[in-house]
Amino acid sequence: MNKAPNTRQRLVEAAKVSVLEKGFGATSIDELIAEVNITKSGFFYHFKDKGELARALLEDYIEEEEKLLDDIFDRGRDLADDPLQAFLISLKLLARTVEDLPEGHPGCLIATYCYQERLFDHTVRELNRNAVLGWRARFRAIFEDISARYPPREEIDLDVLADMVSTILEGGIVMSKALGTPRILPQQVLLFRNMMRAMFLPDAQLSRAPAAG
After folding, report:
1. Quick one: 1 and 101 in the same domain?
2. 39 and 78: one domain?
3. Which residues lie below 8 Å from residue 185, measured CB to CB, with a gap of 6+?
């Protein structure tokens, strides 16, 4: 009873590694079945085609990312009632998390799918789009709480600020991979953290030594 779901998940995991390494187009079914040690008919038992694998792979990745973000930002809120301090703590936790990965962050499937958008059907493209919009909504809600207590120094579109979080994470991953320097991603997260302090903290608090978190 456990064999089928286990094999399906092994296919997803093998595909994830290959797609992040060389892209979806260069990932072949033959390569995956060799990696998982099943027949081609075994692959088609689990996925009717490569497009269905793409959807399963993206859904799995989004779920993992959501769990990671939930854990990190919930921990920040547990450690501070103040929304800005909670966010600053969470950013530090996020930087430490990606820094502790042995080869840096493994990559972002969302970005990979965007780069190769023409390879995917409407369902996959829409799933990808909704994931990005979901992250915008997640961080906008945080920034609404922060700005209600700490009006920003300059007028700012909170959707744009929310998108900046994703941009920094995606861009940090790309730069880390391009330069072979895993430290770039956590450095970018910490720089954004400093920008958030400068943008929202009043002068009296900003002039003090860095606060907890």
Report:
1. no
2. no
3. 98, 99, 104, 105, 169, 172, 173, 175, 176
Q: Are residues 59 and 129 in the same domain?
A: yes
pTM of the model: 0.84
**Angle in degrees, 0-180, between the axes of helices 184-200 and 83-100, rounded to the nearest 10:** 170
The answer as to whether 213 is a domain residue is no
Are the CB atoms for 203 and 190 separated by under 8 Å? no
* Structure tokens given for 180: 């072979």
Number of domains in the chain: 2
Q: Which two tokens stand for residue 1?
A: 């009873």
Reading the block at residue 158, the tokens are 């909170």
Q: Is 209 exposed, middle or buried (0-12, 13-18, 19+ CB in 10 A)?
A: exposed
CATH of the domain at 8: 1.10.10.60
Write the pLDDT tens digit of every residue in 126-144.
988 999 999 999 999 999 9
Q: Could you tell me how many residues make up the chain? A: 213
Q: Is 27 helix (H, G, I), strand (E, B) or coil?
A: coil
**What is the sign of the dihedral through the CA atoms of 126, 134, 167 and 140?**
positive
Q: With beta carbons less than 8 A apart as the criterion, state whether 138 and 87 touch.
A: no
The rounded distance, in Å, linking the Cα atoms of 161 and 120 is 29
3-state secondary structure of 23: coil
Domain containing 95 equals 49-206
pLDDT tens for each residue of 17-35: 888 888 888 899 999 999 9
